[in-house]
Amino acid sequence: MKLTKITAASFVALALATSAQAAMITGSIDIGANSTVSINFVANSVAFNPNTNNAEVTYSDGVLGTLLPANTTLTYANFTYDPLGLTNPIWTDGVTSFNLLSIFEIEEDSTGSTQALKLFGTGILTTTVAGYQDTPGLWSFTADSTTGGTRFSWSSTTSQRVPDGGATFALLGASLVGLGGIRRLLSAVRK
User: Fold this and answer.
1) Strand ranges, E, within 20-179
2) Could you give the dihedral angle defined by the CA atoms of residues 77, 157, 94 and 51, in that order, rounded to the nearest 10 degrees?
3) pLDDT tens by residue, 47-86
4) What predicted TM-score, i.e. pTM, was given to this entire model?
5) Nearest-angstrom CA–CA distance, 86 and 9
6) In 3-state terms, what secondary structure has residue 171?
């Protein structure tokens, strides 16, 4: 009777410990402008015209390649970069979004007729797709008026391991309890 209770308790502990954990969003993404991008070095601002559906995924890989394949249309928000001012998310497709939290490096070049801007920052990538957790990552934005081209990208090289919620220790405990129960059973049979 005692062995049955111990075995039942082990199975209950094992069932409770095997809760599912959400996965990190990994990979990288490159985004190109589908619009006119205006940079104002005096106001430290970047503006997109039109205000919606103004960007497109040009490359993505990893989990991001599944969530945001090439040619996915995005909306990139207008923002100021020194100090940082925006209404997050800075970009979204309505399902997956990036919230810019900080800009840690600003490079401006207004030599002659050239106007170039490079920004580097950090933020959180989120999605409403089940099974993924909010993921920290790095963000970069590059715009160059000489070529008329604008390129901005986000990439996450997060290699954090997702905790297993205690399932490993529950399995170890259940195994030890099971071995103890088998030992008791065998010693009772021998007597």
Assistant:
1) 27-33, 36-40, 45-49, 55-60, 73-76, 79-81, 84-85, 91-92, 96-109, 116-127, 135-144, 150-156
2) 20
3) 888 888 988 898 899 999 999 999 999 999 999 999 999 8
4) 0.68
5) 53
6) helix
Q: What is each CA distance from 88 to 85, 100, 102, 125, 126, in whole angstroms?
A: 9, 7, 12, 11, 11
Helices (H), 35-158: 62-67
Burial class (CB in 10 A: 0-12, 13-18, 19+), 44: middle
- Give which of 117, 124, 134 is closest to 102, Cα–Cα: 124
CA proximity to 103, closest of 136, 126, 80 = 80
Beta bridge partners of 28: 155
Give the separation between CA 16 and CA 13, rounded to whole angstroms.
5
Cα separation, 26 vs 124, in Å, equals 12
Structure confidence by residue, pLDDT tens digits, 116-140 = 888 999 999 999 999 999 999 888 8
The answer to whether the beta carbons of residues 139 and 29 sit under 8 Å apart is no
- The answer to whether 67 touches 46, Cβ cutoff 8 Å, is no
Tokens standing for 132? 């993924």
Cβ atoms of 154 and 28 closer than 8 Å:
yes
